[in-house]
């Protein structure tokens, strides 16, 4: 157990420090939107995103007076609380630590995004559901706790409704088996309370903003080509993979071929996991694991279908975070239950954790240094209302050289581009300024162009 305690401490330290050594600091376009909503509180101007994460950011901002540091405080708290709770409550501590060593937790607790509190809430949702399935006492208390976590998940991300619907689907599919169980009424109570909470929030959205989830603000879905469908299917299947998350933006032949190789690896991983899943029938928590797999599958497919009708990003680690968490957590529970030695999973997890950290530093930079360069310039642009990246055509390519084969290649890292870096930093320093995708504002004097900011 000592090695897991040591790894847990290392994870907390690495998660906190790594964003300082990448150029963009874990701040993306959606981060700026969340910062902007937080800055507008208590009078939000949009319901494009739910208010949960902006509320937390605003609370953390009270102590830090900086939204970058607010996001860092939150991610650190999410990580520490989960690990401490798991250890203190003896709730699958080894499994929890190894989940943190995987790609999903690394990604969501590295960046300033709503997936952090979303997965944080989901962890405790699974805890309460686990207690419902495994104990005959405090069923209604656990059902209430699970309901609060479910409502929080929706409060952080609208896609939380798919987790709720997956649980409803589970109860419907296994109704006749479940109705004989002592925990059946607790599950029904959970469905009722969670449904009322989610429904109430949707109603408030509709009466205040005129839409349930800002559906009119996202725009129509983008690329419906066969190639994009294939990329999305690859991303969906990759939810079974605990470690490999490399997905090139390019749709070149080489990129698709690489993704196909990863897809084949994912299929072998799924087959391997399935062998352990079949052994679940011998355990008292069989229903709990069936629920996890239904949650993972329904959530992933629902997002894939949603992407066909509205503008959301491509299927990848971010969108598949909940599905990957459910599958990996379920697998780890079975693995430790059916194996006397943890050498293989420990070594693989440690190897890929190191790989994820090094891969994240493949193109190192210094966010705080960049931020310190931009910060004194922002006082000149207090009157600006909009922020636009007008340096999209100015491309900075990173060259990678492989001495063994004497070959090199260039890659354009999205988050390393100067315009993108300036946009992220400026939007963090002044979240009241709204970033825009297109330069369509007629009064140009209201627009801060990234070319007006200097990084050198």
Your description of this structure?
It comes from Chryseobacterium taeanense. Keywords: Membrane, Transmembrane, Transmembrane helix. This is Dolichyl-phosphate-mannose-protein mannosyltransferase. The structure is a single chain. The chain is built from 18 helices and five strands. Strands 4-1-5 form a three-stranded parallel β-sheet. A two-stranded antiparallel ribbon has the order 2-3. The chain folds into two domains: 361 residues, no CATH class; 77 residues, no CATH class. Helix 2 runs parallel beside helix 18 and helix 8 packs parallel to helix 11. The chain is mainly alpha-helical and 456 residues long. The longest helix is centred in the middle third of the chain and has 26 residues. The model has no long low-confidence stretch (mean pLDDT 90).
Quick overview of this protein structure:
The protein has 456 residues and is mainly α. It contains 18 helices and five strands. Keywords: Membrane, Transmembrane, Transmembrane helix.
